């Protein structure tokens, strides 16, 4: 079994992006913004699910 060694910066296609602070910062900002929006969507869905659960429980209690 052979181990794959990571290539040095000079041999990777990502070298300019990795070495350029501006591009790296922009990439990090975009990724964190996307993660933030995904988390916001999940929290909204969770809130909606909690509200639905309360409504169903109240309706169920009224029927009993």
Outline the secondary-structure elements.
Elements (H helix, E strand, L loop, with lengths): L14 H5 L1 H43 L1
Total domain count? 1
Total number of helical segments? 2
State the separation between the terminal residues, measured CA to CA. Answer: 66 Å
Kindly state the percentage of residues in helix: over 70%
Number of strands: 0
The parts where pLDDT drops under 50 for at least 5 residues are none
Instruction: Estimate the global geometry from the Cα principal axes.
Output: elongated
Give me the secondary-structure category. mainly alpha
Mean pLDDT: 77
N to C succession of SSEs: HH
Task: Name some characteristics of this structure.
single chain, 75% helix, elongated, 64 residues, mainly alpha
Describe this entry's structure for a reader:
By secondary structure, this protein is mostly helical. It has one domain. The chain is 75% helix and 0% strand. It has helices spanning 15-19, 21-63. It is elongated and about 65 Å long.
